[in-house]
């Protein structure tokens, strides 16, 4: 500043004019230095760093580059230059220093935010991130860092020690707990979810209370994002997964089998003992031939041994069409390529209802993918609906409009025949 003032004084200018001109020239000089430093940093230094990062074997530094950590570091240089030259302006030195320090703190907070985001991205490249997510913890660190940064900025502007402001936070603890209630609950929930391995990114969960039924795509401090099967996204508070119940289908997905649990409702009026013609017919069915021969021999031997009079079908042991059908379904499932034979496989009768006798199939498909599971299930029941009449059985359904129309038309046709 003195050099510029002496140089301007050689032109016999008014001292006031010299003072203002020297100040303006000095400001322009500092601005040119800042612009030049910023240009060198971004166009040369950053390019060199980018070239080094892109051409090495490590991936974590690429993430730092993508998160612009190095780019934001370049903003520190102009602030340091302004702080260094603040003594030039004696009347405004204190104000300029405070402004430069405030800017440095803000840049530091931006760098910390980008660095924490990069740490999250780097961690997510490892498989453990699916079972132990850290996004919630990183968000807590961000809150702490930003809170401390704001306190330091206020302390710097007031010219007071940050410790004095920190001591006053104790009196505001109740207010802070109210403001950060969701964050605190989310932090506690995140720790419990992670330590107990209750939910992971990629898990299929169901939570009807919140309308969630789909895959977990993100676990953060306050929310768990679920992408439903219709591609909508449901936000569930993290602490709700601790306080409320939900279904996690991970066990099914890792077991290698997805449960099929569905019933056929048999018209009870169609259940009857097997006649000789039916038995001979069943012997020709591939899945029943061995069973029918062995079972018939066992029943004849039992009735003969006990001297049972078979003139009445009520006496002794006999085959029923529903029993043979149940055995057929069991054998059919045991040979089906889409059924997991290492898991529970059962065909059972449930308690009769007003809709008939439920014959329940309890088995597991060997593929947990939704489309394939539904295809296997539909294939099985397509076959069973079509084959049930071959056993003399009728499947129950409530009368439809067509059934009622047929019932009304029959008397009319009978009357026409009579005439």
UniProtKB/TrEMBL annotation:
Which GO BP terms sit in this record?
cellular response to osmotic stress
Instruction: Give the residue spans that cross the bilayer.
Output: 20-40, 100-119, 140-157, 163-180
One annotated Gene Ontology cellular component of this protein: plasma membrane
Primary localization = membrane
Please give the Pfam families that the UniProt record associates with this protein: MS_channel_2nd (PF00924)
Tell me the ranges covered by the Mechanosensitive ion channel MscS domain, including all copies.
182-250
**Entry keywords, A to Z:** Cell inner membrane, Cell membrane, Membrane, Stress response, Transmembrane, Transmembrane helix
Query: Which Gene3D superfamilies does the UniProt entry name for this protein?
Result: 2.30.30.60
Provide the protein's localization.
Cell inner membrane
UniProt cross-references to SUPFAM superfamilies, sorted A to Z: Sm-like ribonucleoproteins (SSF50182)
What InterPro entries would the database entry show? Answer: LSM_dom_sf, MscS_beta-dom_sf, MscS_channel_2nd, YbdG
**What one GO molecular function would you report for this record?**
mechanosensitive monoatomic ion channel activity
So which domain of life are we looking at?
Bacteria
UniProt topology in membrane? Multi-pass membrane protein
| Name of this chain's protein | Mechanosensing system component YbdG
Per the UniProt entry, what species is this protein from, by scientific name?
A: Cytobacillus solani
């Amino acid at each position: 500043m003195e050099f510029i003032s002496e140089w301007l004084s050689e032109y016999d200018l008014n001292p006031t004019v010299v003072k203002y001109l020297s100040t303006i020239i000095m400001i322009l000089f500092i601005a040119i230095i800042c612009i030049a430093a910023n240009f060198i940093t971004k166009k040369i230094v950053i390019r060199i760093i980018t070239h080094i990062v892109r051409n090495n074997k490590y991936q974590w530094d690429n993430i730092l580059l993508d998160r612009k950590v190095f780019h934001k570091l370049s903003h520190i240089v102009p602030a340091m230059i302004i702080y260094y030259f603040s003594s030039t302006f004696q009347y405004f030195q204190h104000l300029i220093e405070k402004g430069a320090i405030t800017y440095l703190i803000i840049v530091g907070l931006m760098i910390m935010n980008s660095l924490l985001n990069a740490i999250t991205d780097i961690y997510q490249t490892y498989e453990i991130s699916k079972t132990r997510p850290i996004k919630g913890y990183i968000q807590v660190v961000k809150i702490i860092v930003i809170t401390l940064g704001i306190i330091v900025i206020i302390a710097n502007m007031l010219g007071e020690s940050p410790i004095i402001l920190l001591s006053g936070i104790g009196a505001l603890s109740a207010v802070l707990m109210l403001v950060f209630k969701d964050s605190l609950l989310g932090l506690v929930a995140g720790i419990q979810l992670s330590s107990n391995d209750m939910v992971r990114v990629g898990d299929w969960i169901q939570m009807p209370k919140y309308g969630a039924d789909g895959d977990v795509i993100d676990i953060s401090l306050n929310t768990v994002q679920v992408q439903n099967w219709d591609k909508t996204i449901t936000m569930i508070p993290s602490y709700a997964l601790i306080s409320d119940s939900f279904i996690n289908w991970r066990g099914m997905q890792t077991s290698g089998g997805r449960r099929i649990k569905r019933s056929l409702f048999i018209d009870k009026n169609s259940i009857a003992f097997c006649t000789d013609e039916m038995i001979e017919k069943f012997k020709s069915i591939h899945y029943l031939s061995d069973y029918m021969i062995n079972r018939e021999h066992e029943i004849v031997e039992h009735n003969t041994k006990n001297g049972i009079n078979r003139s009445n079908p009520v006496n002794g042991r006999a085959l029923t069409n529903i029993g043979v059908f149940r055995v057929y379904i069991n054998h059919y499932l045991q040979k089906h390529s889409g059924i997991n034979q290492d898991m529970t496989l059962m065909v059972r009768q449930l308690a009769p209802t007003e809709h008939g006798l439920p014959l329940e199939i309890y088995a597991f498909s060997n593929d947990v993918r939704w489309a394939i599971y539904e295809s296997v299930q539909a294939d099985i029941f397509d076959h069973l609906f079509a084959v049930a009449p071959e056993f003399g059985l009728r499947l129950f359904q409530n009368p439809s409009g067509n059934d009622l129309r047929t019932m009304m038309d029959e008397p009319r046709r009978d009357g026409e025949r009579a005439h």
